[in-house]
Each structure stands twice: as C-alpha cells, then as structure tokens.
Amino acid sequence: MSPYHVKSIAIGALAVIMLILSIQSGFGTAWQSKYTYALAPTAQTKQAPSPSSAGPPSKAPSPDQTTQLQPLSKRIVEYHMSVSLREDGQHLDGEQSVTWTNPGKKEVSELYFHLYPNAFQSGKSTFMRESGGKLRQDRATPDSRSHIELLTLQTLEGESLLPRLQYTRPDDGNAHDYTLARLRLPEAVSPGKSVTLRMSFEVKLPEVFARMGYSGNFVMAGQWFPKIAVYETEGVRNRTTEGWNVHQYHGNSEFYSDFGVYSVRIRVPQSYAVAATGLQTKPAITQDGSKIFQFYAEDVHDFAWAASPDFIYEEVAYSDKGIPGVRIKLYVDPAHAELKERYIHAAKSALSNYAKWYGSYPYSTLSIVVPPKGASGAGGMEYPTLVTAFAADKDNPGYELERTIVHEIGHQYWYGMVASNEFEEAWLDEGFTSYAEDKVMEAAYGVTPNLRVESSYMTDPAPLKQTSWTYNSHSQYAENVYIRAKLVLLDMERQVGSKLMQRILRTYFQKYKFKHPSTADFQRTVELVTKTKWTEYFNQFVYGDGMADFSVEAITTRETSQDGKRLYESTVLIKRHGGGNRSIPIVMRFADGTEVTKEWRAEEAHIQYTELSSSPLEWVSIDPQHTNVLDNKLINNFMMAELETESRTRWSLAATKLLEGLLRSLGW
C-alpha cells in the first residue's frame, strides 16, 4: 500500500521545520526463468470448469501453444470461483470450489478461513475499533457497512459442514469480530493429501473504504471471498513446529495467504469492463444483459478485480531484460484519460528497474486501475498482477502519480512474490517497497527524497518486527514500517555501499521468492553476502526501537597563552543517544574561517575534543551532510560557541521540543 495519504502540515509549522533544516545544512558546506500462464492444467491442477472472461481481451493462446512448466510455488491452494455483481452494484453472489493440500508432516483436522468483508459489519469489529473508521485519509461513511455470509459449505459428497463452522478471535477475544472462522473437518487431511470443499456466499460491499467497495458505478473487489489461511511448515519463518498462522483483520494489518491457482468467472452488467488478477483466457461473452469474463492465474496468493462501465482501456506489450513479455493493461477513469502515457511510462520504469535489480517479473500481465474521484479508499493498493493508482481527483497531479504506480508495482516483488507475513512483519514488505520506490524515482525521474525531513518524521520509533496491531497508533505503525524501515535499509546501504546492498536484496529475493521469509531470513542473507555478523545492528534497529541520534552537548572556550601568544582552548562534548558503531563526521568552524573535521566511530556513549587554536571557535556541527540517515533529531547536531552554556542548552532543548511537537501533528 502506498504511504502517501498524509495530512497536510500547517504552513507555519512546515516553514519552521524547513528553516531550521536549511540553516543547519548551510553550516556543512565551508532467478531467471521464462514464464507464461499455462492454460492447460498442471499435474497438480484440476481442469477448470469451462466458463468465460476483461475487455478488450488479450488474444488467448490456443491449447497447442500452452506449455507444461515447472510451478514457481508449491501451490497449496486451488480456487475455482464464479461471482456475479448484482444490478445494484453493491452485492456479489459467489460460488467456489477450493482445494487445500496439506504441506506439512502431520495430519490436519481443521481449516481456517479469512472472511475479510466482515471487518465492516459493525462499528464493534476489531478493525473498526482499532481504526476508528479511518484508514490513511479515507473515512468510513454511514454506507460503509459490509458483510460476507456463507450460504452453503459442503464436501464433494454433499455433506453440509456449516454446523461445524465457528468464528474465532485468537488476537483479542472480541465477540463482535467475524473475520476469522475455523472449520472442523469430517476427516483429517494426511500429509501431501488434499481436501476439496464447495461453498456459496453473498457479499454486501461497503461504500468504498479500506481497499474495497463501490463508489457510484465503480467496484473494487479486494479480499472479497472466503480465503484459506496459511499453514506454515516447520522451518518457515523459523517455526519449530508446524501449524496455522491465523489472525483477525486489524486496523493496521494487511494480508497473508498461500500461493496457488485461481480460475475465476466474473459476471457483471453488460456495459461494464473488468480488470483482474491474472490472464483473461477468452473474449467476454454477452448473455441475458450481462457480460461474463474468465480469468486464470498461477503462483499467486490472492485474486482481486475491479469493474466499471466508464473505464478507458489501453494495452501495450512490453519486454526487457528480466521481462520476457508482459502486457500492461491500463483501466483509467475518464478524468485521467489524457494522462495514460504517464501511467504506462511509470509502469515500464518500475518493471524495468525491479527486474534488473532483483529478478524477473514472471507473469504475463500487469493491470493498473485508476479509480474515479471519490473512490480514494480503493487507491494506492497492490494485488498480484494488479495495482490501483490514486483516485482521479486532480486534473494535473504531480509526481505522486508516478510514485504511487512505482510503489505498488514494487509490491509485486516484496508482497507478491516474496510474500512476507504482513500480520507479523509488515516492514519486510512496506519498508523494502518504499526503499525500492525511491531508487526507481531517482533513476527514472531524477526525484530524490528529502531524507532530512523524513528522518525527522520519526517522532515515535518502535521495533520493526512486531505484529501490526501492537503499534500504539496507525501513525506509529506508518512511521516505522514505511519510513524507519526504509531508513534502516538505506543506512545499511551507506555502510556497505550501493552495489553490495543491491546484491543483498537480489540474493534475498532470489532465495526466498514464493517462500514466505522472515526477518531472521533477511538477516542471514545480509550476513551471507557481507560475510559479517549483523546481530548488534539488527538488535538495535530492527528488533529494537533504536535511532542514531547524536548531539553537540556542550562547548566551552577559554583564552590562554603559549610562548607569549594569545590562544583559545575549546572543549567540545559530543554524546550518542542511540545506535553507535558508525563513523560520524564532526566539523568545528573557527572565526578565521578554518575548519577541523573529526571522525568518531561512536563506540562509546560520549567523546570530548579539546582544540587549541589562534582563533576562537564559532560553531560545531555533527554530520552536516546528513550521512547518518537514522538521526531523527537533527536540531541538536549544531551549536554556536558564543552563547553561554546555560543559554545554549536551553535553546537546544527548547528547539528540539518545538520541532518534535510540530512533527507529531502529522497523521497517516
């Protein structure tokens, strides 16, 4: 998800921040295999029922063109679904046959289903209690109520299992939360064996909120179907025993699910076009005033779709190194029809760079949906092979248009293929994507981040590896899993160099794509590539809430003489308030214009320098070029020498508190 839904800062506050930072800055100047969707079933895959499928369609391969290829993932699940959008544009009627294969070494006697639309069933759900009916700048309306109801749940033999279904609340025990259900099976599933269930369900969509719903005649169907949870085997994400990884839908959390195959039939009113995960396998069929689309996707862990009668459609073929061939499909709201080339260029820039840096994009399609004005709750979101842009609210948006597309396509790697657990380790997706997004924006558009301001956003640092709902607020969650996580990766890059950092990330992607890695897996990759232990670093900045704040604590200057000459003895005290073991430049400027630079490794809590000079000391600045991106209190990096000690200290503390107060007014 994109982090760029941020409250506006008051002009006066922003002016103060930029003035302080600009003053300070002035003192420093003296895998790679080809892949296409196979339409024929693999050895693990049942033949999909023959339904139908977005317009305008890509030309589907004929049966003799399909090739049996090695699956990219273990394909734990297989969904065959049929869904209809009612004429009111607010309800879905769905049926699905889902097969789950036991990947472990033990019998499994129960399944868990995520029922995400129930998060908006009432104001008492866990999501609504935690979020207060707000996500980023999107607020729930009185019509943002939704539900998913299972109408039937049967075995292949027709036995009803609905009486066996129980709602469960493992995280908070909230009796009003219905987003997770447990099903006791009639027979346990042996290791390597499968169970297939059939079900029908109804979804009432909310007025668009928190990634899904309707807005006018636009529909965003995200997390819309009963979805099986992830059964983690021993060793996955450092588990010592296998078992289900299950959580409710929380105000801060996103999603975690297993890879598999999806064959989905979508029926909409005749005037609608449909964008969806995967490949459209045949031209749409018009029938009884409706239009029927058929999509198919392999080696993905979710399926989303959007529909509207107003989409303007554009499709281009694109290939590059690491991109054997992909069809970029743009479904743009008419208000942004003239901007379609910008959307396409951003997609190409993202795909090209990510493939070059990390590894091949293995899918044959990438769809981009631009929601209409008023549907911002559906914007800035990622799904396998499908992303959403910001809503078309502005006639001439700035680089936020490109940045959002670049960010969401980055999720195709860290969310889509690496598939981190966003319930428990969101930084592995959001932080990595934010880091990669900045790299593309600089490479393609020459846009660089203002790291001084971004590091100053860090007013409430917290450990990166923790469950999403244990952060104190959404603001603290966003600050850490987006900004601080990105800054940690950038700090690592500054220590090892950009080439080695790119090698670290490429190695991590190649080793763990389609495997659900953990923070510990990333640390092992860093240590493998750098041949260095990073335990202390990860303990401080990943498992801990450390920043790397340094301050000029005190300056004293006195006149003295030597051999009859008047001299000045200056003593400077520098303190470390956080992570150390990094080289920090300290610049001392004297009245005659000379400068002395010291390099401090910061292994101790403080250091004191004494300089004897013929000219009085004017000021001291720590790291004036801001090489230490994890320093979030830059205002204490500078001190004038001519102030009395008590006044200097008071000024520094007061200014620091002022800046912190201004930054705390930011919201996500």
Number of domains: 3
CATH superfamily of the largest domain: tricorn interacting facor f3 domain
Q: Quickly name the level 1 CATH class of the largest domain.
A: Mainly Beta
Give a count of the beta strands, DSSP E runs of length 2 or more.
32
* C-alpha termini separation: 12 Å
Q: What does the average pLDDT come to?
A: 88
Beta content: 25-35%
Q: Please work out how many helical segments DSSP would assign.
A: 11
Morphology: elongated
Helix content: 10-25%
Helix/strand/pairing category: alpha+beta
Radius of gyration: 28 Å
The second-level CATH architecture of the largest domain is: Sandwich
What fold name goes in the CATH topology slot of the largest domain? Answer: Immunoglobulin-like
Oligomer: single chain
Low-pLDDT segments: 5-67, 643-651, 654-659, 661-668
Region (Disordered): 45-68
Biased composition (Low complexity): 48-63
Keywords: Aminopeptidase, Hydrolase, Protease
Protein name: M1 family metallopeptidase
Notable traits:
668 residues; alpha+beta; Immunoglobulin-like; Neutral Protease, domain 2; 3 domains; eight-stranded mixed beta sheet; five-stranded mixed beta sheet; 11 helices; 24% helix; 30% strand; disordered C terminus
